[in-house]
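Structure (tokenized):
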């Protein structure tokens, strides 16, 4: 498991009973977590004193119950700054376990002896975009949501990265990749964080278990002749890390060679010392780059 254990302004205080209680800077939130099926730890006062709790509805969705919470606040990871705010369906605008991947991306780019062009697909509020840009890469950030892309721009500005070479693209990721193939545009690194389920602009259904293999094969066509890495995230419980690794092996590694690793992502839990599983990642790396 790759554990995001270098946070100073975020931590999981406890988890259990289908929930987790977290500290986001000075704010403490309780949110659902279907992985946390064990009992909560006794004596963790944060469960009762949390600033806000997200309550799931039996009919789907849910809502926040807020005692005291600013509409928005910032947390920091290394030199990066992220705007945080409570959103629909329990989200805050950031997945802190992804810091393990930001560190990986940062190290690869800084060690490269060539300029690095990165394509970040399903890029959300830009955590990986900022990590790559801060390390010195030029980045193409693609997300279908105009609001999320604007949020990512604001995070970049707050991180002092507004003047870095970042292209901000609001588009369907598959259609964008298809156009990049026709244009002959190439990238040295690709990051993708596709949803488990969704619908495209014309109503087509995306289900990650059915569609991810074809999409990785498509995206691999925009890799440069001497690429650096390809990284795929998944939050679907029906898609094991080894499955994504196998897909990378039969697409990218079959063409370029290289090394594949695939693991769960995790966050340390203060109350128990264990790590809370938080999704999966598969990484392909060219060790000769």
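Design, position by position:
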């Amino acid at each position: 498991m790759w554990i995001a254990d270098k946070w100073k302004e975020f931590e999981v205080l406890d988890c259990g009973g289908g929930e987790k209680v977290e500290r986001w800077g000075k704010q403490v939130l309780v949110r659902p977590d279907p992985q946390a099926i064990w009992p909560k730890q006794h004596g963790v006062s944060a469960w009762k004193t949390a600033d806000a709790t997200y309550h799931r509805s039996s009919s789907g969705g849910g809502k926040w119950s807020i005692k005291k919470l600013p509409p928005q606040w910032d947390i920091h990871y290394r030199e990066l700054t992220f705007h945080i705010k409570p959103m629909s369906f329990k989200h805050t605008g950031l997945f802190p376990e992804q810091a393990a991947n930001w560190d990986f991306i940062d190290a690869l780019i800084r060690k490269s002896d060539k300029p690095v062009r990165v394509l970040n697909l399903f890029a959300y509020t830009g955590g990986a975009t900022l990590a790559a840009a801060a390390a010195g890469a030029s980045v193409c950030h693609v997300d279908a949501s105009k609001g999320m892309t604007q949020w990512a721009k604001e995070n970049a500005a707050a991180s002092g990265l507004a003047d870095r070479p970042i292209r901000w693209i609001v588009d369907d990721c598959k259609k964008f990749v298809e156009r990049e193939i026709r244009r002959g545009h190439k990238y040295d690194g690709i990051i993708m964080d596709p949803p488990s389920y969704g619908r495209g602009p014309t109503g087509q259904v995306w289900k990650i278990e059915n569609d991810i293999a074809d999409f990785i094969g498509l995206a691999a066509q925009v890799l440069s002749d001497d690429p650096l890495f390809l990284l795929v995230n998944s939050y679907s419980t029906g898609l094991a890390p080894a499955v994504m690794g196998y897909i990378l092996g039969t697409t990218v590694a079959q063409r370029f060679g290289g090394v594949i690793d695939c693991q769960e992502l995790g966050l340390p839990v203060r109350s128990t010392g264990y790590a809370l599983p938080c999704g999966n990642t598969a990484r392909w790396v060219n060790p000769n780059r």
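Reviewer-requested clarification: The mean pLDDT is 94. The longest helix spans residues 99-111.
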